[in-house]
Amino acid sequence: MTYQNRKVTSIVTKLIGTVTLVFSLFCAAQTDNVALSDTERVQQAAEEYARTVVTVPDFGDIVLEAAHIDSRLKVSTCDSGYDLSTSGSAKSSGVTVLVKCPEEGWQVYVPVRSTITVPLVITKLPIARGQLITANDLAIESIEQRAYRRQGFYSFEAIVGSKSKRALRVGQVIERKDVCAVCRGDTVVINANMGEMTITTRGEAMRDGSVGEQVKVKNSKSQRIIDATVSGVGEVTVRF
């Protein structure tokens, strides 16, 4: 066999292989589609619609599961497509989706349960009361929202460098009340913003506070007590 013939044979072989692969993927997709029953298609449509109406918190994730459809209900193939709407208001726990097929004249209510998880900071190591918290002490774990409704943290940023106000066990979700970015009696940096100008001075925190909370701070120079917002670990901001 000449070099030219071998080259042509190689190209034909690769082409046949490519066509075979594409055909196999097409058949697999068709098989998956055929494998779905009419009721399963309705459940799938209800789940996809529920995803558009159930509110998911920032950084959260959601898993949706449509309820089983009673086999006694007549649910036939709907070639024209479903008419979808909600029955009642959507909640974090789920929603009931009304699926209609105008072409076939049937409708069915499909409850869709939602499981929402959010990433929250937990303790990777035990933390003692008064301990300064480092990144090595922390981990992030997805927690089901229904099981945890108190205030937690989505990232390490607002926690690292804070002081623990109580002893924390391994695997515990850290709440805002558990730490203080600014702690009572600590010397803090005061950033006084006046328009585009910022003046920095020091003061003493009169109470504990997490990032975003308002605390009273005594200015070390003027001895004046002011209200300021905790803007970081050991730092507060006041606007004039």
From TrEMBL:
Signal peptide: 1-29
Subcellular location, principal: periplasm
Cross-referenced Gene3D superfamilies: 2.30.30.760, Antifreeze-like/N-acetylneuraminic acid synthase C-terminal domain
Subcellular location: Periplasm
Annotated SAF domain residues: 118-180
Designated gene of the protein: flgA
This protein's UniProt keywords: Bacterial flagellum biogenesis, Cell projection, Cilium, Flagellum, Periplasm, Signal
One Pfam entry name: ChapFlgA
Function: Involved in the assembly process of the P-ring formation. It may associate with FlgF on the rod constituting a structure essential for the P-ring assembly or may act as a modulator protein for the P-ring assembly.
Protein name: Flagella basal body P-ring formation protein FlgA
Annotated TM spans: none
Family, per entry: Belongs to the FlgA family.
Species of the source: Vibrio ulleungensis
PANTHER family: FLAGELLA BASAL BODY P-RING FORMATION PROTEIN FLGA
